[in-house]
Specification:
heterodimer; A: 517 residues; alpha+beta; 5-stranded mixed β-sheet; 5-stranded antiparallel β-sheet; 19 strands; extended; B: 1010 residues; alpha/beta; 6-stranded mixed β-sheet; 21 strands; 44% helix; 14% strand; disordered C terminus
């Protein structure tokens, strides 16, 4: 099989993935759609869908009108990539040189010499097919001599095709319909209209008449017949995190000694990453214990780094968080690679007075010491409910200082009341509430004690200070989830504190929600 | 304790207000509010509805609008007619300069139009800008909704008010009539902002405090300033304008010096009468004309008639075919003015149906204009009356259940796939979402999200969504229309539209001119032109010979492909049963195949009586004079109205309301209210309940669609003319019909096939012989043939070939078309006179297109290629693919030998099979229909080279073959022959894709589900 090349094609991989992910759909009409939208096009169908009269290109909504039992879904690119990686691994069992094609599910394989290991070329091709089948996918395999021609045969074939010679290969490929080759739609339509439907018919055209009529893609297909270009297989080498395992003999629970051993392993791993221009984006440290327990830690520096000391320092902080249940017998060190940015590689970085990187390092230390959730910041959100008006989110960078925009002309000039929220709001009884308020504010607080505040028609509250108004501020809504109806009031406590309380109209209870600063 | 809400936005503040204007008025009445303002956002879209309801309830209404200015919002209220005009002009200006749906005016412009307006300003910066212009008509509007951010803003407003000396008036911004509409208002806000409820944040209001409040509630809310509430009454008292104050005057036509409009109308009417009755105007006619003119003068409608006359004269001058329809056909004056073409006296049509003193409503004249030239007429109206005095009437697009489901579902965050399923199981015109539809879509109707969906969909149904434009309704004014109602630019270029729809215009008693497009008139005009050019025959609608027996014979056979109004499958089936012998039969034919008579079960009784199989009896002696023309069976809309008066003792007012309710097409519930009134009264009068029920069913049917007699007569005239042209000048008729497409019921291929079966010679598209339009060519033997124009080549923009062309390259360099266009021409066979084989032409086009930018001598001598020529069958297929028709054959011809061997007959053979016999047939689907009146039955029309076959497919049979039934272009059916009165149907029991079809052909899909 010297000089041989093979192509494996898992036809309509997306559809195969869909049915594998939804096994119950195999017995019903099912379709793959491009997007999760009613007007998305069907991009692939199973046999039930085809026999029900559906066809690729129909809109999902229209198809559902015709076949109400149609199951349709998308398959994410990530999922397809994952399957492609799995299939690549499986195919590496039959050849070390596997090149995934731009079309998902198609693989070009260097099959040179493989026949000797598999009792002949056909046996090898069958084992390649079985390798794919072992992962639950169906594929065709073509074994030939020119990767482009072999690929064309595989795209059209169902099963295994082994050609005996380059001439034989051309003869077989001559019957391959052009529609199987993924030509641009316009080129294919033009060729179809002229009755040129197979590679053989295309190859029969005078070469000089093709390019200006049908474009470079078709001209390239035409040129295959001349076999003027050699395209070697470019195998896909799997990229894995760098890993080292340290046996701790005898088992030890001294963190300093364990970290010393880890440091040594880290030096080796970091230098390996450095050779490819990469740095450590995360350190995964797994400690296997004598009592068969495991302690797993994932530690992220502020930015990808090759600073072993920094990594060890962060690991020390993390390990200091808790005691180990027994002695460590093995430590596995894995470093996750990431490209190192140019800025990080600079020799003479400009030093600023306020060094944001120092802040980031400090944050990383806090995070290492207390866990990732220890560093958060509040982000304002667009919502009416006070507690929904902000959210805590992980803090991963230093926010820039910005100048606030000037206030609108009709915006109030007063400084807004700053309230410290009590989370969750604390329920208070009416008697507690009374105790909180001095007599002087009774008039303002009177509505609290009367359910019919809105019906109070007395006009004795003559004060024009809006804050002194008897009316509460009211927040109600969220009816689509759970109904909220709150009347908010400010109340002055006996100690002079200004409290923010609300009456929950649904539960008919009072709550203390905050204190004005 | 009194309070008047002054800032109220109805559902006509599109996607903001959550209550219909009527609901707001009713709620105000219920709460005992002395007055209510309607102040929609930058418009007055909802005021007429509010006005009508308020008038009925005796509720005082204040009219105004919330106006967006460059310095904030202002609520402007009209204190007088002058103020209303100012407001309308201001809004017109604001809309004119903004994208659709938006408006912006400057504070300066508001100040300039302050007369007659009162300004309530919630925005502090705007107050000083309006102080001088409005003086004591300026108020600071303090609106409270219990929002936390309101007090500081109000403090600012009060400061500003103090500085300019404006009193503060209390308000809340009312967005719904009752607080339980808050969810709907949230949904509307989300639709408007394109977000979901969970992501809406502050784009929805924080609470439900935007409802109409009682006076007590307002005093409580403004307990610190009760005077502000008191002032609402002061403001209300100052607003003394009602839409009743609008005194609309129709534009007086420019009449010759020394003439009055009425005198001029009399003169042109009498002149017209002499032309209409060349043998002399009879006393009856003269008396009728005098009677009509007297009433027109009394009601001061002369200007309106002269305007219609002027438009018709314009059409005549410009050679544009037009014809009045609707109730105007009841008027002798309209007939004499040339507005209508049917002699009302000859037809015994009732003038009072058109115009009556008692009804005191403006006349309604609809003018059909050949659709290709309608825009010319519309632009003429704009030019003649000016854009300030003429604008088109709006059409309010409302939510129906299906559209509501989609929008509400999106807002609720329901996954698109589920929502799509529910929407597809909901009827287009349903007003609510039913549980069965949800279950059919595979969703749980009891799940919270779907319960909300159902409730909100019901609330949203019938709510206005946005403003569109009426197909042809114009409002013309003596004074500027903009002083009556705001005018805004329409989406369509050079069109302007008022903010009221046709119901509003009717309710206010304003005059409307309807200029509607009709494809059949385009075809008729084109046909007359062709006959003039090729047959030296000068005819017009008025001079086509009447009472032609050959034409009626053709109609009676149902041979009516292309004949206006009677070409549908249902009409074709009816014609052999009704066998029209004269014009009035044709009027009945046009009217009888409508949901009204069908739903009322009136069709078969009429046919039986006509054939003498059933005696003509009347359910009550009083109804004989109403129904005598139609053998005791009500067929026309006005017969139903008159029945209501005669048999159910409807007053003229009630009958007129019935007419309006029938006309308010698909407005839910308006017709149903007549059931309890009409049926018991008829029964009490001794009319059989069964007849009464059927009459009411017919009323319901007319709610769907039904024709008044005059309207049917106008259409019957066009039907007769097109039938006459088809019968006597089939070549010119086909050519004209092809050029007038798209129109009518059938595709061009069906028209061509039908004409070929009638012996019309057709010629293929060819760049050396065809123009853009189709044309007639005279052969050596003197016969005419129809040459199809290049307009039929798919995907081609207009260009006019200038033959002769020597080669494809010569054509390409001369015509300068794109490569795609050249390919389309080659594929459609349009280079047939240059290169005989279509694939060779295509190969040449690909080569030429690549060389187009190069000089001629750059042509390379390319080696020859060998391409497989098209077979005759492929040629026909290519014709269909490239031009949607073929002059070279019918697609079914290729299968004929095979079908004959299989013992499957063609369409002619099917018609020869005995009634009740089994039949198997294969044909091309040209029409699928499932009429709402047919209880789930689907009707198919299949075609082959010999004619048509009609299929009846029962609901369960269709369900069993749904995919094939809905999608297949070629169908094989088995069933039983059913023949009634010479009309043949196949009642189908199985549908299939013909087994002999190649997969690609089987996959070809039909697109003709009507």
């Amino acid at each position: 099989m010297s000089g041989r090349v093979a192509c494996v094609c898992a036809h309509e991989l997306g559809m195969q993935v869909l049915l594998r992910d939804h096994p119950s759909w195999r017995d019903a009409p099912a379709a793959l759609v491009a997007e999760d939208r009613p007007d998305a096009h069907l991009t692939a169908l199973n046999a039930h869908a085809v026999s029900a009269g559906l066809s690729v290109g129909m809109r999902c909504g229209a198809a559902r009108n015709l076949v109400s039992t149609l199951r349709a879904a998308t398959v994410s690119e990530a999922r397809v990539r994952e399957v492609v990686a799995t299939l690549s691994d499986a195919l590496r069992r039959v050849s070390p040189k596997v090149e995934p094609d731009a079309v998902a599910g198609v693989f070009v394989i260097d099959a040179a010499g493989m026949g000797r290991l598999h009792r002949g070329a056909r046996a090898w091709a069958l084992s390649a097919r079985r390798a794919v089948a072992s992962q639950g996918f169906a594929a065709s395999v073509a074994l030939g001599f020119d990767r482009r021609v072999t690929r064309a045969i595989a795209l059209h074939a169902r099963g295994v095709v082994v050609t005996r010679s380059a001439l034989d290969e051309l003869a077989v490929a001559g019957d391959v319909p052009l529609r199987a080759l993924g030509l641009p739609v316009r080129s294919r339509a033009a060729l179809d209209a002229l009755g040129i439907e197979t590679l053989g018919a295309l190859w029969a055209l005078p070469p000089e008449t093709v390019r200006h009529r049908f474009g470079p893609e078709v001209a390239e297909l035409r040129a295959w017949a001349s076999r003027d270009v050699e395209l070697p297989v470019q195998p896909d080498t799997p990229r894995e995190p760098a890993r080292a395992v340290i046996e701790v003999e005898p088992p030890d629970d001294d963190q300093a000694r364990i970290l010393f051993a880890v440091r040594g392993a880290l030096h080796l791993l970091v230098s390996r990453l450095a050779s490819t221009g990469e740095a450590v984006s995360a350190l995964r440290l797994t400690l296997s214990l004598e009592d068969r327990g495991r302690a797993e830690h994932r530690i992220e520096p502020a930015a990808p780094t090759r600073d072993v000391a920094l990594l060890v320092d962060l690991a020390r902080l993390r390990l200091a968080e808790g005691a180990l249940s027994s002695r460590v017998r093995e430590a596995e060190v894995i470093v996750e690679p990431a490209p190192l940015r140019g800025e990080q590689l600079a020799l003479f970085a400009h030093e600023r007075l306020r060094d944001p990187r120092a802040v980031a390092r400090a944050v990383a230390r806090v995070r290492a010491a207390f866990g990732d959730a220890a560093v958060t910041r509040a982000r304002l959100r667009d919502a009416h409910l006070p507690e929904a008006g902000f959210a805590w989110e992980p803090h991963d960078f230093v926010p820039a200082t910005t100048t606030p925009p000037p206030p609108a002309l009709d915006a109030p000039s007063e400084v807004p009341l700053v309230r410290r929220l009590i989370s969750p709001p604390r329920e208070v009884s009416p008697s507690e509430l009374h105790a909180l308020s001095p007599i002087a504010h009774e008039a303002a607080l009177r509505p609290w004690l009367r359910a019919d505040a809105e019906n109070d028609t007395s006009h004795d509250a003559a004060a024009r200070d809006p804050w002194a108004s008897a009316s509460p501020s009211r927040v109600s809504g969220a009816w689509w989830a759970r109904t909220v109806e709150r009347d908010y009031y400010y109340a002055e406590a006996v100690n002079g504190a200004l409290l923010w309380v609300f009456f929950d109209r649904v539960r008919e209870r009072w709550f203390l929600h905050g204190v004005v600063d | 304790m009194r309070y008047a809400p002054l800032w109220v936005k109805s559902a006509y503040s599109f996607l903001e207000g959550a209550s219909q204007p009527e609901a707001l008025v009713e709620r105000a009445q219920e709460l005992g509010l002395p007055a209510l303002a309607i102040t929609d956002r930058d418009g007055v879209y909802g005021v007429v509805r509010a006005h009508v309801r308020a008038k009925a309830l005796g509720q005082r209404l204040i009219l105004g609008a919330q106006v967006t200015t460059d310095a904030g919002l202002a609520v402007l209220l009209a204190t007088s007619r002058e103020g209303w005009a100012s407001l309308c002009q201001l809004l017109t200006e604001g809309r004119r300069r903004c994208p659709k749906g938006e408006s912006l005016v400057t504070a300066v412009e508001v100040a300039e139009r302050a007369r007659g307006l009162l300004a309530l300003v919630p925005s502090a910066p705007l107050l000083p800008l309006l102080r001088d212009a409005f003086g004591d008509r300026l108020y600071a509007l303090a609106a409270r909704h219990l929002r936390e951010d309101e007090p500081p803003r109000e403090a600012l407003l009060r400061e500003a008010a103090l500085r300019v000396g404006a009193p503060v008036v209390a308000a809340s911004e009312v967005l719904y009539h009752h607080r339980d509409r808050k969810p709907l208002q949230d949904v509307l806000a989300c639709i408007r902002h394109g977000c979901t409820l969970s992501t809406a944040g502050r784009r929805i209001t924080p609470n439900a405090e935007h409802a109409l409040l009682t006076a007590a509630e307002m005093y409580a809310r403004f307990a610190d300033d009760p005077l502000a509430v008191e002032r609402t009454r002061e403001v209300a008292a100052r607003c003394d304008f009602s839409l009743d104050a609008i005194r609309y005057r129709y534009p007086a036509e420019r009449v010759p010096v020394g003439e009055t409009p009425q005198g001029w109308l009399r003169r042109v009417t009498l002149e017209g009468a002499r032309k209409r009755y060349p043998k002399g105007v009879s006393e009856t006619v003269a008396a009728q004309i005098e009677r009509e003119l007297a009433l027109i003068e009394e009601l001061d409608y002369g200007g309106y008639f002269l305007t219609m006359y002027e438009i018709v004269e314009f059409c005549r001058r410009e050679g544009i075919t037009c014809q009045g329809r609707g109730s105007a056909a009841n008027s002798a004056v309209c007939f004499c003015l040339g507005v209508t073409a049917v002699d009302p006296l000859g037809m015994d049509l009732l003038f009072e149906r058109f115009l009556s003193r008692e009804r005191a409503e403006p006349p309604d004249i609809d003018l059909d204009i050949e659709h290709a030239r309608r825009e010319e007429v519309i632009q003429h109206v704009y030019a003649r009356y000016g854009r300030t005095h003429a604008a088109m009437v709006a059409n309010v697009i409302r939510y129906r259940a299906r559209s509501a489901v989609r929008d509400v579902g999106k807002v609720l965050g329901i996954p698109q796939a589920e929502l799509d399923g529910v929407a597809r199981h909901t009827g287009h015109w349903d007003s609510a979402l039913d549980l069965d539809a949800m279950r059919a879509a595979g969703v749980d109707p009891e799940a919270r999200s779907f319960r909300l969906l159902r409730a909100l969909t019901a609330q949203l149904s019938d709510m206005p969504r946005h403003l569109s434009i009426h197909p042809g309704g114009f409002l013309l004014g003596y004074e500027a229309v903009t002083s009556l109602v705001p005018v805004e630019p329409a989406t369509m270029e050079n069109r302007t539209v008022i903010q009221w729809d046709k119901y509003d215009v009717d309710d206010l008693g304003l005059f409307k001119v309807d200029l509607l497009g009709l494809g059949a008139l385009t075809a008729v005009h084109r046909c007359f032109d062709l006959m003039r050019a090729h047959e030296r025959l000068d005819l017009s609608m008025a001079t086509v010979p009447t009472g032609d027996p050959d034409t009626y014979e053709m109609l009676s056979r149902g041979d009516t492909v292309g004949v206006f109004q009677v070409e549908s499958r249902a009409q074709m089936s009816m014609l052999p049963r009704l066998k029209p012998r004269d014009f009035y039969d044709l009027v009945i034919e046009v009217a009888i195949v409508r949901p009204g008579p069908i739903q009322g079960g009136m069709v078969h009784p009429y046919l039986r009586r006509r054939e003498g199989k059933e005696p003509v009896v009347y359910p009550h002696p009083d109804v004989e004079r109403v129904l005598s023309k139609t053998l005791g069976v009500p067929i026309f809309q006005e017969q139903v109205m008159r029945l209501a008066m005669v048999a159910a003792d409807y007053t003229p007012g009630e009958a007129d309301q019935l007419r309006k309710d029938m006309g308010a097409w698909r407005s839910s519930g308006r017709i149903e209210q007549h059931r309890d009134r009409m049926i018991p009264r008829m029964v009490a009068k001794g009319i059989a309940r069964d007849f009464a029920e059927r009459v009411f069913q017919q009323v319901l049917g007319f709610g769907e669609y039904g024709f008044p007699e005059s309207h049917a007569a106008s259409f019957a005239l066009i039907a007769y003319v097109t039938a006459w042209l088809k019968r006597h000048h089939p070549e010119a008729f086909l050519c004209a019909m092809l050029d007038a497409q798209p129109m009518g019921f059938y595709a061009a291929s069906t028209l061509l096939e039908d004409a070929r079966r009638h012996g019309v010679a057709t010629l293929p598209i060819d760049v050396n012989h065809s123009g853009w339009d189709c044309s007639l060519e005279r052969a050596g033997d003197g016969s005419l043939a129809v040459r199809v124009g290049v307009r039929y080549v798919s995907g081609l923009s207009r260009f006019d070939p200038s033959p002769p062309y020597r080669s494809i390259e010569h054509f390409a360099r001369t015509a300068r078309l794109s490569k795609r266009a050249l390919v389309s021409l080659a594929e459609a066979g349009a280079f047939g006179s240059l290169v005989s084989d279509r694939r060779e032409a295509l190969w040449a086009v690909h080569g030429v297109a690549a060389r187009l930018g190069l000089p001629l001598d750059a042509d390379a001598d390319e080696p020859a290629v060998s391409l497989a020529p098209l077979t005759p069958d492929e040629t026909v297929t290519w014709d269909y693919l490239g031009a949607s028709h073929s002059t070279r054959g019918h697609p079914m011809e290729r299968y004929r030998d095979h079908l004959t061997r299989e013992g499957i007959p063609d369409a002619a053979g099917i018609c020869a099979l005995p009634d009740g016999g089994r039949a198997r047939y294969v044909g091309m689907v040209i029409c699928r229909q499932r009429p709402s009146t047919a209880a789930g039955v689907t009707f198919f029309t299949l075609e082959d080279e010999s004619g048509f076959v009609n299929l009846v497919v029962w609901r369960d049979v269709f369900a069993a073959h749904a995919v094939v039934g809905r999608t297949a272009a070629l169908l094989e059916v088995t069933g039983r022959i059913q023949r009634v009165d010479g009309v043949t149907h196949v009642v189908v029991d199985a549908l299939a894709i013909p087994s002999f079809l190649a997969p690609a052909e089987a996959a070809a899909r039909s697109r003709d589900f009507h």
